[in-house]
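Next comes this protein:
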Amino acid sequence: MLLLSASALQCYQCLINPQPGEYYNTTKRLCVHFDYSDKFIVDCPFSTMCMKKDFYLDIQNGVRINAVLRDCAQQKNEYQDYKNGKWSPKTEVVEAYEEGCTSDNRGDKAVVNKYCYCRSDLCNSSNTNHEGYTDIMGVIVVFNLMKYINSLR
């Protein structure tokens, strides 16, 4: 039997919100603080691709909110296998994506998602250049402002 040693793919990971229930402090890897440093590099043992998701939301008065999410592509498939009268957990990596970028607006022109997948270490580092966009903090500010205005009515 031949065993091959392979290191996991490394990708940049930044999150829009801290993940509940995580054992490590994910607030250190929020996308709003993304700076290409080592603290944003993660191993992806159950992925063969890195992913970058650009998305924007058009809100009132022509304001566009933009955000970027970086992570390992979700390729892990966990299931139960029945063999020889016994169930056992199995894990496999599913090749579900093609390299490159695709857009998904699901018929709603106010929200557009652009997904990019690539196969080399840290390949999801590309910067998004959208002039006139604000970042995810703009979403929070606008949401709270609209909530406040509605409370005055």
Residues 10-128 form one domain. The first helix runs from residue 136 to 152.
